[in-house]
Amino acid sequence: MIIKGVKARIIMDSRKNPAIEVILNTSNGIYRASAPSGASTGKFEIRAYPKAGINVAVDYLNNLKKFKNYHVNDFNDFRKIEKFFNPSMGGNVIIAFEFALLKSLAKGKIWKFFNPRPKQLPLPVGNVVGGGAHLIPKNKLDIQEYLLIPHTATFKEAVKINNDLYRLIGKKLKTKRKTDEGAWAPENISDLEAFDIIISVMKDYSEKQGVDVHLGIDLASSQLYNKRRYSYDNFSPSQKKKDFIKKDQIALINDWINRYHLAYIEDPLEEQDFSGYKNLDHSALLVGDDLIVTDIRRLKKSFVNAVIIKPNQIGSLVKTKEIVDYCLKKNIVPIISHRSGETLDATISQLAVAWKIPFIKCGINGKEREAKLKEILRIEKEIKRD
Ligand code: 2PG
Ligand code: MG
Hints:
The protein is α/β, with parallel strands linked by helices and about 375 residues long. The chain has 2 domains: about 1-110, Enolase-like, N-terminal domain (Enolase-like, domain 1, 2-Layer Sandwich), CATH 3.30.390.10; about 115-385, Enolase-like C-terminal domain (TIM Barrel), CATH 3.20.20. Helices cover about 35% and strands about 20% of the residues. Strand 12, helix 8 and strand 13 (about 305-310) form a beta-alpha-beta unit. The model has no long low-confidence stretch (mean pLDDT about 95). The structure holds 2-phosphoglyceric acid and magnesium ion.
């Protein structure tokens, strides 16, 4: 395939913040892609855009001469291509470019390019209720996301379950407000009350429908951590403010895993605490997001059994694939994830199928989230037809 021209422009993301879109003109056709951005970003993530602002990155891409009539044969060429980019332009420039390049190379079907006969599709991890850094002005929840994880034979069934539960839980919470990721943002309930409400609706629904749905949370605990303490503002009705030192935070998480049958807990400890995970209950997925930032070197010194995969945390699709392959080899569960500020780009859905990633973390509601779910539904249909 030959790249004929590179163009970049600004589009608006789901938070109405500017994002970069890259448009590639190639011998395989014209393909476009964009990269998302986070609000609860990890301290060790690479920066998304240049210090001088997103416009500098757009100009940089529009003036890139290197790729005029440049030949790309396969994914191995991406290693060399990444070296052409000035790292000070930020991770989103490279990721938007590489997403568009991979789409061009694969003629729009990235999943088929890597995995022509998928045996299994990912399952969705759906954000149903939340708060924390994903809501301005804030509500009272300290827990950033409560997550639904249906275990079903098809993606279609899983999406239906998450939609049903989203509706039922919304009704019960009597709230109209939503977080950046489209999750319900109740105003006046505490962290523990939210657990009780969600679990009671899940239980009722699962029994009636005969389905298997697991519960998870993203605690994004670096956001709660200050001066060696995890501080909760609205823990329970009787104990609003609670402070936990490391040892007590570990005991709390182990208690929650047991009490609420949590199958998944993301960033239960702050982003520099590698050793604390040794004392957590590994019967749940202990998921590193801000702790790992999609960096294989951080993963290798951690004790997590699952990891969030966000290509723009590391700013390299080559390194993203490396960490996914490493996880699959070492029985660590990779979970590809959206960001809180999203675009309509659905490359992560394609990558989930392409690289045999077992879970995709995504919202349930909102057009940017639905775009990712619909992409996998389309792939599921196409596989069935084959
Ligand atoms: C997270 C993500 C996505 P953000 O913390 O896992 O849910 O949030 O994109 O704001 O980092
Ligand atoms: Mg997270």
